[in-house]
Design brief:
Helix content is 39%, strand content 19%. The protein has 16 helices and 14 strands. The protein has an eight-stranded mixed β-sheet, sandwiched between helices. Strand 12, helix 12 and strand 13 form a beta-alpha-beta unit.
Length: 420
């Protein structure tokens, strides 16, 4: 998938370039967008570019700042060869639509100040959402006469409209027009899936400025296995059972009602146990929904070491996308799961990008979103050995090499340098 990025690239490798990368999430944030908005500037620095990162104080995925960061407006540091400029942002305990707007707006305001602190740059690369950050990018593109690149990891407004989380009307249409205005003024708009690329083209971005840059992973590093038994020793409730786990954001778009209902459908069978690992806006409701189910355990977000130990000990990983959301975001965790050769149980719309990728790789079973009977049948096939879970896992590992870090990021860097 990276071949199209590498054409005519030889002449773009010779000069160090001043690059400003901006994202609301950055190390030590360790989930979602942060995985990519952290690794991209690190890669550029490894190639000899002069990199400045404009970001916020860390808060994700717990939606809570560190004690030492509360009340701070600005900070500067150096990380992996990058200069990092941090600015204040409001972090709500529970993110309603209005609180999220304030959250994103405060970040963008202080990011603009940090752009001034950074000084003129040759290239500006934004990781979005929030798309409001694009206003900052457009302003400094004009001021500095720089190239502006927007990497879209998620289309939250489109997803919210599709899921009915935001009502269609004047306010939503205004936001959509502003979003499209920003994208049309970028020199390059990168998206992570073919369906999202089509969505961007529908917003008026010209085809010569839109590019597919799939998310990436260092496969060799990500495929290293943890020691077996560490997770099971800490969590004996799943020992000796067929264990299915979900780990990540417990949000509305993830559609995790289905995992609770799947657990309920086999609650009389003591062979099964389910873990929901993480936090998010929908966690409290999911906990309430799972009351009385002894085969469901909720756990907090895990650090990398504990996460890998969990993957080593569970039998199956569950991933879902709520119906209607599949064209507007793509699970960031998927490449890591494939690198670990994990068999997958997927609940998603038949035409979603997630379903297409899993079917193409042959690394999991895709079930129509909302069909508990089909999910239960797939679970029983996995646990009963009718599906070769090891073979499915190996197919995923084989497929994920096309998303290897060196190929994807090398090609994208070349494509940016060739912009005029």
């Amino acid at each position: 998938m990276a071949d199209h990025l590498r054409e005519d690239s030889a002449s773009s490798r010779h000069m160090a370039t001043k690059v400003l990368v901006s994202s609301i999430n950055f190390y030590p944030d360790h989930a979602g967008i942060a995985v990519y908005s952290t690794d991209f500037p690190k890669y550029l620095a490894e190639q000899g570019d002069e990199v400045t990162v404009v970001t916020a104080f860390p808060y994700y995925p717990k939606w809570e700042k560190r004690k030492e960061d509360k009340g701070r407006l600005f900070a500067s540091e150096t990380w992996e060869g990058c200069k990092v400029l941090r600015g204040y942002l409001y972090v709500p305990r529970r993110a309603s639509a209005m609180k999220r707007l304030i959250h994103e707006a405060t970040f963008c305001m202080f990011a603009a100040c940090n752009f001034f602190r950074a000084g003129r740059q040759d290239e500006i690369v934004l990781f979005t959402p929030p798309f409001f950050l694009g206003f900052v990018g457009v302003f400094f593109k004009v001021l500095w006469r720089s190239k502006l690149v927007i990497n879209i990891q998620d289309l939250p407004l489109d997803a919210a409209l599709a899921l009915g989380m935001v009502k269609k009307g004047f306010f939503a249409k205004t936001l959509q027009r502003l979003e499209a205005w920003i994208y049309r003024r970028a020199d390059q708009v990168a998206t992570i899936s073919p369906v999202m690329l089509d969505n961007v083209l529908e917003k008026g971005v010209s085809r010569d400025r839109a590019i597919l840059v799939p998310n990436w992973i260092d496969v060799k590093r990500a495929s290293e296995k943890a020691e077996k038994g560490l997770f099971a020793a800490k969590h004996p409730e799943g020992r000796g059972k067929f264990v299915t786990a979900y780990a990540g954001n417990l949000g509305i778009k993830q559609g995790l009602d289905l995992l609770i209902e799947l657990a309920r459908s086999v609650s009389a069978d003591e062979r099964y146990h389910f873990y929901l690992i993480g936090d998010g806006a929908d966690r409290d409701r999911l906990v309430e929904m799972a009351k009385g189910l002894r085969n469901v355990t909720f756990l907090p977000f895990m650090n990398s070491e504990n996460y890998l130990a969990m993957l080593r000990d569970v039998d199956l990983i569950f991933v879902a996308q709520r119906s209607g959301a599949g064209n507007n975001f793509f699970p960031s965790k998927l490449l890591g799961l494939m690198s670990q050769a994990m068999p997958l149980l997927i609940a998603a719309d038949e035409d979603s990008e997630l379903a297409k990728v899993i079917r193409s790789a042959g690394c999991g079973v895709v079930c129509p979103y909302g069909d508990i009977a089909v999910l239960k049948h797939a679970l029983e096939d996995y646990s009963g050995g009718k599906i070769d879970a090891r073979e499915y896992g190996q197919r995923g590992l084989k497929t994920v090499w096309q998303y290897d870090r060196a190929a994807i990021l090398g090609g994208w860097r070349d494509a940016i340098r060739l912009l005029k």
